[in-house]
DNA sequence: TATGAATGAGAGTTCATTCAT
DNA sequence: AATGAATGAACTCTCATTCAT
């Protein structure tokens, strides 16, 4: 991650003194996220990103290795957030079916709260370089496996029906979640929580014993 | 559709006589489908398409207005196929829950049979020009509405549970279906029919009264 | 001239029978003239010409050797017309200053009557191939020399002032004439005859002894 | 004007130190002027321009928005020069007929001194984009109006004959001037000043009261 | 820490022309 | 007399990235 190497240097003094130029990497990531979501990764010239962020190309290449690297940072941020949430929820001592329902609802709310990230995620993965793509997939798989473990725990405990493949259920459910970006409108009639409840309800109902 | 204007003319004789050069537009579409699915629309140069199809750029632009047009044709083909299938299934006189289950399973089988189309569909829509994007969305919406009508018919008839928004169910289910392209492997352990049964089962179970 | 070789063949019968397809070369020339004047030679694709003429590319290349040839025909037509007019006027037995004035006025009226030709003439000459360009220039020079001869005749006869180079006068006057295309508007307030009188008047006045 | 944004920055040091790479935009404009005059705008590939200027395409597009922009800059330069000259001459306190004669002669000398610009001007105007064409025409019109004002001043003062439309005279005269590029040869027998005197003489004579 | 001029490869598209039919 | 599929070369322009400063 080029970010870590560079972003943590910098003169704190100057940042405090001149908030205009402060947080350059953060502003670049924000601009990139917005643009990648709106236009797609390949349709977004580096020029546009730096314009939106109000910096120059030189600055971008100072903080990030490449355009790819920028995308990679975005993925890393999303994955970190979702993993943290899942871990937190899974670690509570509520009954498994409650933890599963909470996790299912949370991933919907989180995805809607970061809809740009969601759009990028499912559209632009294959535009990452081979190696970084592997990293992201691996992290993603770990996330899915953690989710699947919850289902299997419920199946073993008899609170969720057997006879349905947990791995398929995970792919089934996250397909729905990833597609939120294609149809959900922030200015539409549905609150994020409403969608979350419905989605979680559909999942749990389909798993009733 | 540029294709229709040109591809249907031409001398059948010659095509029969020299299958090597025959079906130029079809070969272009096939090559484009494969490449768009593998590499993505923006990552696929026109040069590669014509190389794979064994023709020249001039030939491509003789049959298609633009690279965009090629993508549009692919969409049109998928939509036509899925719409036909849905209409056929919906029109039978089986009980509504059987028709819904059949439709749900069919769209999975069809998507897997045309996995390249599926991958392109959900990844590259936003790379179509504004106008064509509208066309495709409209056609897609009609398809979804037809599907939703089946659910609502079941709800009204009391064979599917009330209290769940049919439109959300449609988005939920087709999210799962569209994402098949990201995880399904043709050389994997799961037959298309197995996935189809599971998916249809999850849908129907979640709608049990 | 490719035209002569081909256009004079053809079945008179068919032309009489089907005026729709008759006069194909003429319609091509008309379309080309209009388009070359509006858009410029290089900006006018052959495709547009044949569309406007309602024929196919094959037909065009049947009658004309090339796009260049089409332009050449247009030049030939203009030159022929103007030369004929000049010869006719110069050959009358009116006093030389009357003949000069008449010729000067006529070339304005003719240029305005064929404004498209005029526009093409002064804009697109250099887009002709080397050889054809020479031909046109030679013909043009002959025309200018005939005009100059009138001036010199007047100077020798004492009805036009000496001490002004006749060749420069010719270039001076035809500069003005060729530029009609850039400012004259057919729907403007000035009748062609008005302009012609003014132009001829300016010329004759500047040559008063 | 894209030029202004970029060309004035840059390190003067470096330019002084390495004149080989200095003045890239100027060298591009020079090459473009020469080529547009010789071959015409549409016949001149960008490739040729950058070859002649000894830079890469990227450099061209760094300084200019488009090939059109390059042409526009050339126009702007010509117009600026001619307008300045006219203003200077018109502002002297010589009698109006002297000022008019001087202006008429000057525009000939200037046109011949910048014959390439002249050729481009009257041939390629219509190859500019709609909007820029309007700009140039407006500027041109202002120039013509300034010139016309001189004539009208002379007419009102009684030193030039009435009964001839000043606007037509302007179009008449500038037609001649613009056409210098089609026949004047720098290696020919006529000095620029000779032509200028003749042209001015023809104009003034045609306006004698 | 940051600049922005410059690169060089490649993008999508257009075009006049040919030729088998 | 006429078709229109196909060519192949050339076109304008864009882009991520580098590097001297």
TrEMBL record, chains A, B, C, D:
- SUPFAM superfamilies in the record: Homeodomain-like, Tetracyclin repressor-like, C-terminal domain
User: Which keywords does this chain's UniProt record carry?
Assistant: DNA-binding, Repressor, Transcription, Transcription regulation
User: Which Gene3D superfamilies does this entry report, sorted A to Z?
Assistant: Homeodomain-like, Tetracycline Repressor, domain 2
Tell me the ranges covered by the HTH tetR-type domain, including all copies. 22-82
Pfam families registered for this protein in UniProt: TetR_C_24, TetR_N
Q: Which residues bind DNA?
A: 45-64
* InterPro entries tied to this protein: Homeodomain-like_sf, HTH-type_TetR-like_transc_reg, HTH_TetR, KstR2_TetR_C, Tet_transcr_reg_TetR-rel_C_sf
Name of the protein = TetR/AcrR family transcriptional regulator
* Species: Streptomyces thermolineatus
**Organismal lineage:** Bacteria, Bacillati, Actinomycetota, Actinomycetes, Kitasatosporales
